[in-house]
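hi!! sorry for the late reply, been swamped w classes. u asked for the two structures so here they r. pasted raw, havent cleaned anything up. first the sequence of the first protein and right below it the tokens
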Amino acid sequence: MTEFTESSRPSGSGAPRERTGPARPARPTDPAGAAHPADRTDPVDPAAPADPTGLTALRLLAAYRAGETGPVAATRAALARAEEIQPELSAFVRLMPEEALEQAARSEERWRRGEPCGLLDGVPVTVKDILLLRGAPTLKGSLTVDPAGPWDEDAPSVARLREHGAVFLGKTTTPEFGWKGVTDSPLSGVTRNPHDPARTAGGSSGGAAVAVARGAGPLALGTDGGGSVRIPASFCGIFALKPTYGRVPLYPASAFGTLAHVGPMTRDAADAALLMDVIGGADSRDWSALAPPAGSFSAELDGGVRGLRVAFSPALGGQVAVRPEVAAAVRRAVEALAGLGAYVEETDPDLADPVDAFHTLWFAGAARVTQHLGREQRARLDPGLREVCATGARLSALDYLAAVDVRMDLGRRMGLFHDTYDLLVTPTMPVTAFEAGAEVPRGSGLGRWTGWTPFTYPFNMTQQPAATVPVGTDADGLPIGLQLVAARHRDALVLRAAHALYAAGVARAAGAGSAVTPGGS
């Protein structure tokens, strides 16, 4: 296991220790006749890139089936890519090369026998260092968590991945306890944008977004309490879904309560649907988890958007100042939805910015997660987190319940809105990635990260499914995201609409070096 922390970095370099990349593996034989979800894709193109880091999970599975590559080759390549990008971008808090290659070797033998064990057998994945991964410390970006463990349990989503044969590359970076919308922490330093390392990757699932964007595994698990899969996905040019609350079980429960969701971060909507088919089942450890879905998310992808009623809100009724390049790219994508047969109306949901209520819920959660810490441990916290915790500690139960009232009314309003409209479309972010190492854009006058994320946190409060889709870049080559929101429990509809944008070539993975094939195919 290779750990990457601030203390492991050479003085003055800002980079973790380098390792020699693993050797190139032999190719496996064809597991002929193996039934697998990779069958839903077209056969592997003979001109497909020899580098497996350029493939989506579905294409990778198809390549395993066709004998074009195997889990060991794919895992070695993903590990090598992770090692390559780590010094500059800091996407990982630890890599697990020995464990990953052992898992990949077992998967390769199953494919050789024609007996893959699940929907993701041999696919390299990463796990945000908020979620438990058996055998690896979960430090949550904090110097206050004891790495000694024991670490003998998987989170529900991680357990489902393990059951389906996924290969765990390692743990990705997070701000301390996932508290803000950018990814830097006392534990692992600053995570940087794959398109411009001087810019932020966003957060709090910033390491996961960078890993997917740069080919260090096609699938990642992130968490989202106020935009934390959608913000970095938008900034890094990948796809992410915040599912309906409870659709993906969460254990241990988040200190941020029912604001916190687990979601897939991938190169396209088809991969996210496949990942949701794996992680979207029930788990008895989460008392608030939903019943298993009635069908497969992957099976519902190809329905298109013809006839859907789409509300386009470019600025939430003028409440948000959106950068012109962002507004233009999102509008072009919305026009494409209309061209695909959706009925699009420019209109706004009936809501005022719920930021004060969100702050009450969020700051109280931050105070709770750090409540047990003594004076010396508190001194080691991110200074911004200390400020938020102090604010949260001053809140009363009545303050909290008043915020819950705002939340319930917001949910009512959005429920009525979706009686008329199947989907709400907004920009994911009003800006593109700004300078790394800052909580807010310098010179913006904003106080906290919520000042530049007004399109994301309202839908954590309402527990609705919301996805971000890359729909262009600005003049500096920085990705722009479009957000799709649906009524609670309509996750399949969000994935279906996103997939239609990919199929039409409107949504495209923003290129970030040789790791990503444009279009996500």
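now the second protein. again sequence first, tokens right under
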Amino acid sequence: MKKKAGAKILLFMLLLALAQKFLGFFREMLLAQQFGTSIETDAYIIGLTIPTVVFAAVLAAITTTYIPIYIKIKNQKGEVEATTFTNNLLLIVLLISLVAMIFCQIFAPFIVGIVGSGLSAEGNSIAVNLTRVSLLMLPLLTLIAMYKVYLEARSKYLMPAFINIPIIVIVIISLMFADKIGVLGVMIANIVGAIIQVLIMAVYARKEGYHVKFTKINLKDKNLKEMSLLVIPVLIGTSVQQVNIAVDRILGSRLGEGSIAALSFGQKINEVFFGLISSTISTFIFPKLSNLNSSNLENQFEELVRRSLNLVSLVVLPITMIVIFYNEFIVRILFERGAFNEESTVLTSSALLFYSIGMLFLGFRDVLNRTFYSMGNTKTPMRNAAIATVSNIILSIVLMNIIGFVGIPLASSISSIITSTLLLISLRATISKFNFSSFIIVQIKILLSSLVLIIVSKYCIGLLAPNESFEALFNAVGILIGFLVYGLSLFLLRVKEVRMLVGGILDKIKGRKEKKK
């Protein structure tokens, strides 16, 4: 029953993530339509870099180390003590974010000069103004992150999975009026959306028994000291993706107008596909892994890790194949309208193609990092992240000079492959009972089924012999048929994770029918 209940929760989380990603796609489509791959788009993306990319690494490190400690305090001393620790930590992080906001406001021109070093004088001026506005989100993002991780620690997953939707909707509305409010108005909409997120989370957390109390900060808390020892290694481990994004944008700014925008749009599509499943699964399993590790339930721990990796592959690998073979079609359908012209499509689809090579490995990385963190092992992800960051910088510079623009996303993919491979090797050495042969067999089955998907979709599209008027429809039909055959192939090959997901869906349908009766 617990497995079925877990499958239902995971399914709901995936549906909410899907809705969020769909809306996020629509937001990017409107951004592309209104501004294309222009200097304003480049400046807007740079403006969002500091609060949403750079500081996100700090918040990720703090919130990642929080859950195992919260669970330990709750199990040993009770909820009151755990809540007190949460409030103390929130006040400290909030103070740090306010100091960081003031610091970054003062040095905004210098920061933009680094992140957008290749921008023109006009682009730099716009980016500095937008950055100063976006920095107002830092304290809000801190509150959102702490509320989310508190609820996840209490196994309340649905509200944290939903909460990004309001800000996306607000930005979408602002983009509809972008011709009147301009790019500055769109940036302000991000702040309005963040305020709404904080209010919703505060109300929900209060129902769960927690609200912020502005008491005296206790820096001598033993649990805080324990957490501080873990934060720096985790900060390095969780910041690799943010650092890679920053590197891509710094180098991209030197490749001409629109390069940052093209890299960002390609990256957004890539993140949607791998992030939809990997971030949802890693969020869902983290508290469970921490509990299993604390209870020394090694067999259940190993099974949960292996099945989580298989679930990532189950969804991400076929999508990777689709992106590799249909990248230009995907970009054209999603973005080619308004200011986003054919040249923008070519640039973005090239970036997407090379980003997609590392898509599966990014998904593995998220799950594996959480696995090591749940065991209290922060050094292994830190070492691998450092290797990945250095390799990404070196490869980006080398490949950019050899093959140009696409060298940047290719370097990012190669560094992701290196990171995940090293993490898998470390996992096998750390978990002696990890059934690696079973994992490889499932991966082979999924790969074969994914290849069948491509063959069937290509055959169907060729059979339909589309003309330009119906190209989008026939491509979509061919890909849909391919996915149906992919699912059938997985059933025939007896991949257990498929049966688990389908079982959760069927149980939910049966439950609704019984309620109606």
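hope this helps!! also noticed smth abt the second:
The two ends are 22 Å apart (CA to CA).
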